[in-house]
Amino acid sequence: MPFDDEQFDDGFSDDTTKVQLDLWKRLFGYALAYKKELAFLIVAAVATAGVEVSYSLFAKWVVDDVQANGMDASFGLWGGLYLLCNLVVAVSIGGFEWIAGRVSCYVSHDIRFAAFVNLQKLSFSYFDRRPVGWLMARLTADCDRLTGILSWGFVDMIWGFTIMVGLTGAMLVMDWRLALLVMSVLPVVWWVSIKFHRRILKSARLVRSTNSEITGSFNESIMGVLTSKTFVSQDANAKQFGVLTNRMYRASVRNLVLAAVYLPLVLVIASVAVNLTLTVGGSFVYLGLIGAGTVVAFTMLARNFFWPAEIMSSWFIELQMAQAAAERVLSVIDEDPEIQDSASVLRALADESASRLGRFAADGGHARIQRIELKGVGFAYDPKQPVLRDIDLVAQRGDTIAIVGPTGGGKSTLVNVICRFYEPTAGQVLIDGTDYRNRSLHWLQSNLGMVLQDAHVFSGSIRENIRYGRLNATDAQVEHAARLADAHGFITALDQGYDTPAGEGGSRLSAGQKQLVSLARAILADPQLLVMDEATSSVDTETELAIQHALAEIFRGRISFVIAHRLSTIRNATRILVVDGGRIVESGDHGELMAANGRYAALYRQQGLNEATREWSEVAGA
Model-level pTM greater than 0.90? Predict the structure, then answer.
């Protein structure tokens, strides 16, 4: 389904249509990191502008020389100077084409890298509210448009400003009256620019917004292609996508029409200035006030005066469109994670010897977690609809805590709060007696291992995917983890063994195989806190039994939380929690809960009956 890009706040108001100087000052800071390259661009732009001014002056000098000396004029001198100017222009243009291209690539890299680094820091809640396509549009199309103007726009700005200053000076020196006549149309150009730039920016924002929606729709269509085909919803998807493309078409056409009207208006104004120069200058020649060479030079100067104005006008339009993209890219770079280290932790990390907190917060795993305690923990995505209420729980090192209950009861949310993917909106989570908000977030999550129901596998080899749990692990350690996860057998049966490519998103592996690879990755990480969320739901019964034997060894010496659907797999858990309605409604080991004959006992018996019935049906069917 397509999403509404406008529901996501970028931190910028769409009613703001003026050029945001602070925004562009900050963005040009990325380009200023390459001072040598920019210095060369400035020199090349100034040299090119200087030569452009010289061409007009040469025309005056040649005409005046011919009028004064006839065939004895210094044609060789003027020809040599003209060739020298052409050489300077060729070197300058070639140089800044090359350097500007490099700066564009550098800036694009830096902005994308800054956005990517910040994305890695953001909390899970940020991604809950923003689809993948929304983010992809900002890091691709928006970034490309932005980096173009930061490099080429900078060059043209320097070149245009320099040549206009040079031409203005030359005209004022030759004849101030004609100079003022040429420049008299500048207020008209300014007025036209003011009238158009707000409309151009507004339409540009709509184009960028719709582009984000289209990218998101593409992403969802590709990810959900199986579902679409299963429910034969291709026509409905095409219709919804057509709404987006029509909106993009209308917004783009409006933007292009505004640009198409704006630039010709500037050209018309420039033509008026040239015609005025010819008319008034011709009258001055007739009256003997100036020479013919001055009129010829002024005609060239007037035309060249508005040439950079035309170029800068086109870049002004690009600036409006790029500002819309810049706002979106910076919204990603500037976003602060909702969950981050407290000021006390940051101070302790800055001086690890200052306190026990500093030493513990910076510890990479030497300080073993002995105890996790939840006191009155509550959590709510929406304050009006709490998901967890009054959770009290103590887990000691070596404990395996199984969490069961109905769908939507709060099982996964409880584990996410314990892992600090979300922080409690009420109560405390204590690690060895200290609120985990006073611990280092990196320390906690670096000692965390997770195996999820929907295991994610990267596009590299199986060996690389397992090694992702500990990047410095040896091949022997990788294979040992795979054996513990019961993944070694299927891996070695593949043509390339551990070097077999997993495919994008693990497309070359079955769901069960991806789950085993994910389990091996978690085992290799050797976490102090292990979370398994329906980790064996995608494997067959025989493989699940083999994994259960391995888990007994894996769970030893650490705190483990297991969200389970198959209750038969958690009989040996230290404690079993039944979570329903955001509360722990039952707690105890398997024997205690069965003896209590409560919800767990009812669920266990019902599930056992269902499994027996299914097995009987399979036997009867055979």
Answer: no
